[in-house]
Amino acid sequence: MIVSRLAPSPTGAQHPGNARTYLIAWLWVRSQGGHLRLRIEDIDSPRVRPEAVASLFDDLRWLGLDFDGEPVVQTQRLPLYRAALDELRGRELVYPCTCTRSDIADSASAPHAEREGPVYPGSCAGRRATDADGLGDRPYAWRFRATRSPTFVDRFVGETAIDLRAVGGDFVVWKSSDTPAYQLAVAVDDADMGITDVIRGDDLLVSTPRQILLYEALGLRPPRFMHVPLVVGEDGRRLAKRHGDTRLTALRARGVSAETLIGWLGWSCGWLPEPRATTAKGLLAAFDMTKVPRAPVTFRDGDLR
């Protein structure tokens, strides 16, 4: 049976781009009689907004996207992540890194993609896991040794090869704040929850080979991946605050109905000949991933009027 998940992060409000990815995942699972879980990814504690958690549930109800079982909350699962880190430490697959962000930036010699940051130069890679005991009060993170870059077949993108050395090198799995980093938490969660299919935005495509390395290192079976194009603003950049108030809560406040938004999203995916009001369930009969455009979809002010 197919098991997938919605994995919102309560670090800000949800917008039409999030809604499009959630809708695709919901339709993929419901069209095949699978299970859809909900996971609240709230380990990025400095950026988490408590009020955003309640808003997440309101947004999903408004969109008509249900899920199965009880929600999984990452901050309630810290022992699982710690056990995974201990296993990686025991196998010398990670090492303590005392480099600061500025140390890494100063060593960069080439430009890098947005959000990925500079390539880690390997300054601390000569350390062993046991060297952490001698660092005293010095803050450090744990980095995974990315010695290779696994290829994979994405269900939407196709065969994909990403050179991890070019997009960051050895990556952090445990932060200096003593909390798990995204890559480790996601891999542990998906395996523990029995996730068979991951459907998410293609901005996370570069995370996939990292997570595959972690699955393999922990003796876990990776899920199948499907990365779908993002919703962007008229400047071609990922939809964000700079494009105006596109929050789902703001759309509701302006009187936009969920059916209007779902209709626009269905049209943007090629399932409707024109934007017209409908529901998520109303799109089940038309759902067809082969019709989804390969390029990002542009959201313009006034599209939902």
Give a brief description.
The chain is α/β, with parallel strands linked by helices and 305 residues long. The chain folds into two domains: 3-76 and 229-298, 3-Layer(aba) Sandwich (Rossmann fold), CATH 3.40.50.620; 78-188, 3-Layer(aba) Sandwich (Rossmann fold). The chain is 29% helix and 14% strand.
Which helices and strands appear, and what pairs or packs with what?
Elements: E1 3-6, H1 16-30, E2 35-40, H2 50-63, E3 72-73, H3 78-90, E4 94-97, H4 101-107, E5 141-144, E6 152-154, E7 158-160, E8 171-174, H5 182-192, E9 197-201, H6 207-217, E10 224-228, E11 231-232, H7 248-253, H8 258-268, E12 297-298
Parallel strand pairs: 1-2, 2-3, 9-10, 11-12
Antiparallel strand pairs: 4-5, 5-8, 6-7
Relevant terms:
alpha/beta; 8 helices; 2 domains; Rossmann fold; elongated; three-stranded parallel β-sheet; three-stranded antiparallel β-sheet; 305 residues
Task: Kindly report the CATH topology of the largest domain.
Answer: Rossmann fold
The class by helix and strand makeup works out as: alpha/beta
**Backbone CA Rg:** 20 Å
**How far apart are the first and last residues' alpha carbons, in Å?**
40 Å
Task: State the oligomer.
Answer: single chain
Number of helices, counting only DSSP H or I runs of 4 residues or more: 8
Average pLDDT, to the nearest integer? 92
Largest sheet: 3 strands, parallel
CATH class of the largest domain equals Alpha Beta
Considering DSSP H and I runs of 4 or more, what fraction of the residues is helical? Answer: 25-40%
